[in-house]
Automatic annotation (TrEMBL):
This is Putative proline/betaine transporter. It comes from the Bacteria. Gene3D superfamilies: MFS general substrate transporter like domains. The chain crosses the membrane at residues 20-44, 56-80, 92-110, 116-135, 156-180, 192-211, 251-271, 283-305, 312-331, 337-356, 377-399, 405-424. The lineage of its organism: Bacteria, Bacillati, Bacillota, Bacilli, Lactobacillales. It is a multi-pass membrane protein. It comes from Ligilactobacillus apodemi DSM 16634 = JCM 16172. It is found in: Cell membrane. Its main location: membrane. SUPFAM superfamilies: MFS general substrate transporter. Residues 19-428 form the Major facilitator superfamily (MFS) profile domain.
Length: 434
């Protein structure tokens, strides 16, 4: 039987509208929260939680707290992956959003160094770790809700819906910071303004929980349950039978993550401390670039359904190798607007091409009974490799070797991504019901 025929035989099935909203809202909340943290870590946390340090050390330490959640994310993917593969996608997605939302809101209430000393930074790391655990179960569940409801010839398109949540969350978060910085002065932003986005995220969490409670379990997981093809030990089976796919997927995605946080978190910190751009200027430029990012996610995902994932993503990964070597030259001179526009414009074309189709690729590497665990662990290991330390390493490389060394870490990961793709078969026509 075909995938379409199998899905037709399953009684409970969500509408396309519900699938789109349920998959997109989670990643929108995820990236809203992460961008709120990244923006605050670059602009405000050095002064709020590390005022006793030199400006450079305070920035590096602040960006390292940004990486705490990436270390926690594989833990979350192990935890939520187990439940997602043994109990179902829907229940696990609701729980992961709840954990993520509560920890994010808690960050908005944390006292700074002036009130509790180093305890403020420790509490920040604790909340960030819990946030990372929740995030560890979010992405894989969201893309499975989309792709396991998709027609066989439109998996990349459906997988792009949760991916579009990334620029949506980014745009909303940066837009809110832009308005706040235009409304409040610097002392007000340091006192309470930076907290507002973390508290506002509660609204998105409530919406997300409401939508997901009205979501049906995915047809393919229901089918697996009916045919007794689920497993009570998904992690054991995953690492026994699919460890090669985990390694390949991690490096396929690693370069993408390094680029993503270089374009966003690192560029925001570097442009406002070394290039003469104001924080609000950079937020406005990033908001414009993120629209381009969203368009590329959708168009390249449609292309990946037509000509295959490997052709699209391998081409973009090779482009990433070149970009990692040349982008520091775009960022030379003070307030170089043309250079910054080239950096963001070219960067987000490559980034959108890389990020869109991967929503289908990583799940396609794994069979249904370990797909939640496999896609989630792979995605979050890539986050550790590519993003946990990327902003801090880039800052250190520049301080040690000069501005033209900023792309070296991304270059190494981009080359590893090319090698991973060259050893991976096309996934477009795999049997997704397996």
């Amino acid at each position: 039987m075909t995938e379409t025929e199998l899905k037709t035989n399953v009684v409970a099935k969500s509408s396309v509208k519900t699938v789109i909203l349920a998959s997109m809202i989670g990643t929108a909340v995820e990236f809203f929260d992460f961008y709120a943290y990244g923006t605050a870590a670059a602009a405000y946390f050095p002064k709020v939680f590390f005022p006793q340090m030199t400006p450079l050390l305070a920035t590096v330490l602040s960006l390292l707290t940004f990486g705490v959640a990436f270390v926690a994310r594989p833990v979350g993917s192990f935890l939520f992956g187990h439940f997602g593969d043994s109990l179902g996608r829907k229940k696990t997605l609701v729980l992961s959003m709840l954990v993520m939302g509560v920890s994010t809101i808690a960050i908005g209430f944390l006292p700074g160094y002036q009130s509790v000393g180093v305890w403020g930074a420790l509490l920040l790391c604790g909340c960030r770790f819990v946030q990372g655990i929740g995030l560890g179960g979010e992405w894989s569940g969201a893309v499975l809700v989309a792709t396991e409801n998709a027609p066989a010839d439109k998996r990349a398109l459906y997988g792009a819906f949760p991916e579009v949540g990334a620029p949506l969350g980014f745009f909303l978060c940066n837009g809110l910071f832009f308005v706040l910085e235009k409304t409040l002065d610097q002392s007000q932003m340091l006192t309470f303004g930076w907290r507002i986005p973390f508290l506002v995220s509660a609204v998105l969490v409530v919406i997300g929980l409401y939508v997901r409670r009205h979501l049906e379990e995915t047809p393919l997981f229901q089918l697996a349950q009916e045919n007794d093809k689920t497993t009570k030990t998904p992690l054991k089976e995953l690492f026994e039978k699919n460890w090669r796919e985990i390694v390949k997927g991690t490096f396929i995605m690693g370069g993408t993550y390094a680029m993503f946080y270089t374009l966003t978190t690192w560029s925001l910190a570097y442009a406002t401390t070394a290039l003469g751009f104001s924080h609000s200027e950079m937020l406005l430029l990033l908001m414009g670039a993120i629209v381009e990012f969203a368009v590329l996610i959708m168009t390249t995902s449609v292309l990946a359904d037509k000509i295959g994932r490997k052709k699209v993503l391998l081409t973009a990964t090779v482009a990433l190798v070149g970009f990692s070597l040349v982008f520091p030259y775009f960022l030379s001179g003070q307030h170089n607007l043309v250079g910054m526009l080239l950096f963001l414009g070219v960067g987000f074309v490559i980034m959108g091409t890389l990020y869109g189709p991967v929503g289908a690729v990583l799940p396609e590497l794994f069979p249904t009974k370990v797909r939640y665990s496999g896609a989630g662990i792979t995605y979050n290991l890539a986050a550790v490799v590519g993003a946990a330390v990327a902003p801090s390493i880039s800052t250190w490389l520049i301080a040690r070797f000069g501005p033209h060394a900023a792309g070296l870490y991304m270059f190494v990961l981009a080359v590893a991504s090319v090698i991973a793709w060259l050893t991976t078969k096309e996934t477009k026509d795999v049997d997704y019901t397996r």
